What we know:
This is TmcB/TmcC TPR repeats domain-containing protein. The chain crosses the membrane at residues 27-46, 83-107, 114-144, 164-188, 235-254, 266-286, 292-313, 822-842, 1009-1033, 1103-1122, 1289-1312. It holds the Pfam family TPR_TmcB. There is one protein chain. The chain has 47 helices and 12 strands. Strands 2-1-5-4-3 form a 5-stranded antiparallel β-sheet. A 5-stranded antiparallel β-sheet has the order 7-6-10-9-8. α9 runs antiparallel to α10, α20 packs across α38 (970-1069) and α35 (853-881) packs antiparallel against α36. Residues 526-535, 744-795, 1073-1083 and 1333-1354 have low confidence and may be disordered.
Amino acid sequence: MNIIYESLLQIYPYRISSQVPSKFYQLFRVFFLSAWTLGQLTLFFWGKNLDMTSWDTYIVFWEIISFSSIDQIAFYYDFANPLILSAIVLPCACICMIGILVLLCIFKRKSYYFYIVALRVSLFFNCEFFYIPIIRLLFCVLKYSSLNYEEVEEYAGNSSVNDFNYGTFGIAVSVMCIVFMIILTLFYESCSFEIRFFLKNLILQCKSNCKVSIINRLFQIVIAYLFTNLKVSNYSFYLIFALGVNLACAYFITSDLSFYCFWENVISLFIQIDSAIIALTFIIGLQIKNASITVVLWIIMQPILMLLSYQIIKYRQGRIKDFRDMNKESFRNYELTIRNMLYTGELKEELLNWMIKNYKTNKSSYNKLFQAYYCSDILGLKMLGLAKISSENTQPFDICAGFQVFKCKKYMHHICQEFSESLKLLNYFSEFTEIKSLDLDFCESFRSFLKKCLSDNSDINDLKMQSRKVIDKMKKLKKKYEILLGIYPSAIDVKELYGSLLINILNESDEGRFYLCKSSIKKKDTNFEKSNSFALNRSFVVISGDKKSLGHIKYFTKNFTSFLGLTSIEAQNLPINLLLPKDFRGFHNFFLERFVETTTTTTVFRCSPSFMLNFKGFLCQFLISSELIGDGKTVNFLCRADLIPDGSSRAFCFLYPNGQIKEHSKNFPEIIGVDNIYIENLYIQELLKDFDFEDFYKNDEVQERLNRRNESITMTLDDTRVGNITIKVLYIGYSKYDKGDLTMNEYDKSQKKKLKFLLNNGESTLSKNIEGFCHELSSQDNLKSFQQETSKPETCGYMRNLSFNEKKLIQNSLRTLSFTKLVLIISIAIILIVDISILIYFSKEVSRLTSLKVFLNLSDMSYSISFASLISRMLDIDLRSQTVNPLFNTTDLRTILVNLKDIQDKLQNSYDSWSYCPVSSIVHSKKLTYWELESSPIRYQGTLPDVLDLFIKHTEKFILHLESNDINYKPHLYFISFNGMGSIILAANQTIEALSECEIQKAQKLTIISFYLVIGGGAFHGLLLIALIIFLIKIDKSLNRLWKHLRKKIYTAHKQMNQKIIKRLVISHDYHENEERIKDDEIYEDADLNRNYRHSVKYVKKFSLIFALSVIMYGISYYTFLRPVDEYLSQRPLLIKSVMERRVQLMSLCFYSLEKDFENSENSLARLFPENYPISDPKSKILYISAALKYSKSILIEPKSLEIMDTNLKNLIFEKATGSSFIRNGLFRAAAYLSQESLFIAFNKIRDNNETIEKYISNTIEFTYLVEDVVDKIFKVSGNAIENKLNGYMAFVIFYCAVIFIVYMVFINPFLRTEIMIVKSVFRLLSIIPSQTVLCSTTGISKLSRKSTIKITK
Length: 1354
């Protein structure tokens, strides 16, 4: 949770007094926000259609009162949609922005100021200013997206259900946004207020806790839910519930008094009571059915409610008891009793003691918060405040207390860091310990790498990774050293450690001497030695005060471990109890814990004599000064321990009241005259004759006696009390001392000196004595002198350690890897270009094949000509038979002619789109046979547009004759009937058939091309991979040359390097007893230094991933996208043609069936043209068309045809259609019905009446309209199916490109970058390892060269 708190702290940082706005601004903001909130709450209680008289009049008043309800305003002024979208976007945006801020904190990146301001403003609008409208809108979206409603019930104005209905998406998004709102509200209410009560003039959002605010917000969410789901159905119960909720909130506000400002509590209470009164007025108005009562009562109650709120808060404050009588209450109640005293600070430390007593009874994080702020702001004990809050840990999900504690820790640590020298010293210890740990880790890793590099079993990948880790650790270690020296430029311990690292390990002699020179100059300073000579026996130790590691040693100086004979490894995390005398151990941790909880000062004790046991069990006496220090994370005890040396003439022991010796110092047996080293559990009366405790109290404090060897010794006795046990300390010595000399020697006098920190021991003092150290350690003067006295070398030292050949070798290796990276990028680019080229070509060809407009134009032409022929024939019959109510008129025929002229233009203009097909010659060059009736039928030839033009002209002349009731139109009727139902339709049908064959052939050709493109692309990628593998094999030579050189150099210098590392481990890291970790390495006499590694294998494995993905991509794209699209393209023309033909076929069938029915009448064409009958054998035509209908039926039910239809289209064709009864079972059955009807009319051997004929013609026309609609849908649906597949293919290619890019960026590029960094690491390793070639005395050839030559020969 600390990362989240760190992010929230950037949004709501701790304030200082200068950041507090003016009092007028704060009061204005309080009143404005309160009025704004009250206006938004008002909308909860009234609706647009209430069952009260005069409600239409008084609703205007409540609309004005609800002025801040922007959701209501949005419906009046018609911007509801943008507001709803904003209500959805704003919570999501806030969550995303907070998530980004958390990620920035995780990766320790700086966030921009404007981003923090934007996030803070967004949270304010989301969780404060527009909180209630957003919640209402989200619940409305959830409601109206879940169920079907006719109107919006919650809002008046121009509200529409469609504004809220987002379907399943709306349900999911609204629930998600409501959850986001709850989360944001919890964080906002927990973090936006200021708990510090000492910021003078701060009024707004300054309170003791956020409990009431969170409860209030949650209640508002409940009311908003009931506002949308209960208000309309049970308005009375809703009002009663709202009344109870607001009264409950008013009770919590009165009971808690969370705001420090009196008027803010009054206003908060007034809002809740006023909301309750509004609910009550509407309950009364609903009962008496009068809207005026709601307005009158509410207006009258306003001043009364304000006065009532004022009196209630005043009464509640008057009922607060004395804090001394409330000490055992929870801190939430206890804080009310001490709030004024916290602000004034009149009780000083006494109030702090009372808060400590309350904390013992009720553990509360808020108690520690108030203690910390009270210590810092009132008592001025900032370090004590930091210690108080540092010892407090909160529960993970207690957001409010957790954030405020975290904020307080950060604030206290910030202000204490500026002036507290003890905290600076603690930070120094922490950082120095961390840097020693890093130093140790680097030495062990480097030593392990040297061993592994000479091992014949070593794997090149392990060597590469380990070399990279070694160099990364080295860089991190150097950076840490330089940062630490930048903060503490006079820290001699750090300089010595860093300088020895540079000289002995990193082979940077100039830089190392630079730091060691500074260290030695400081040590040789005579004034420094003289002024600090009294502190040579001083040590420091930091003991943990945290409950989990209470009493454990965290940090210590060299002197501390040397005084007690411990190693640094033994002392680390050692419980301090183990170093105390046995009688001191029992209650020590208890005393530490109690001190942390109950202290009112940071000083534990100052210059107090104390005792510890060294590693042999002898007592050592120290002068101890201890201070409690918090670092914002834990609390610690910083102890200064000044050793009082025994010497050869002074000793002491612990005595029980009966004279039994418990523990003693090292020299005590010798001075007492006993030969044994340990004399514990003996009685002093047995060792010294006539020894009596009373003599030290009655006669003289210092007495002279004879030891067992009859030597004169001086002794004195002190009493030390541990718990209920009194322990006496007996001091003895050879010479005559005063009591003070025997106990403390001269160390008490040394405290008067100003003690400076001994930088060569990494030590400091406490309190005021620390000030000298920290000033010297981090002063700018020392920093400047540190930078100027010895100029640091400008050039990198390790560059000078490399030979020309080594530099050239590194450059060649880096150049090879860079070129490899470039080759791979070019290969990937070629792969992507090939794939995208295939996609572009395929998409272009598909777009050509999916454009079947010529199909539709030719079909429309055939249909229009057949329809015109049918209408012309019917008009002819009607005119000759003098039909009263004809089915058609000349207007219908003229409409068809207009369509024909438009189709004629389309055919001329679209020639280029189908010119690839040979049948397109019908438009320009191919001659079409047609007949004209002059004196006799004459045969002519012309192009399709010419014949169509003649058809239109003859039809127009035919219309003119009809309109003038002139029946001399036989030539025109002959042309229309013979050519319209003959050569023109036949030519159009043949053209459509040929065109469909062209389309199918082109689709099949595209199938073959796409297959070869896929095969060719895969083969090309394979060749590219082979070329890349051949190139990668060649890089082995360059990289092997580099690694051979590194291993040979390590071979010559590994003994020397190993000894240096061992020496550093022993001296700097106390590896005295761990013999296994510091033993000499084996001498690898038989190491194969000319071993070749297969670097290219790993490269090929990595790079093959991209090519493998390409092969998979080609397989998936062909079988999932390309082949289905080819099949769709082949089937689509057949499907469209089969459906379009039905329209023309049934219209022709209608024409021939009628002619068959009329063949024996006077109006038949056989009678009109007895010698030149234009229609030969209508019967055969009818049977031919019926057979053609059955063939088109088989195309419709093919599986491939069904694949490119959607469900609605299938239903329209096979199951259900809208229209007359004969087509309600679908197009399929309707065509069968009309076919049977035509056969019945043609072959029933009777003349059908006009009603039957007209019904049949009407059904045929209705069917043709349905077919036209079906054709449009097939064209659209099949095109969409192909387009969807094509879009899927495009998306798949884009996805593949993205995958290739991600694979390259996530796997390949980091791998190559790592390989380049490894070469640079080898470069750095070559500079670290010293060049050391031992020449043979006889031949002058180096042993290494000789040995390598022998190895190669073998």
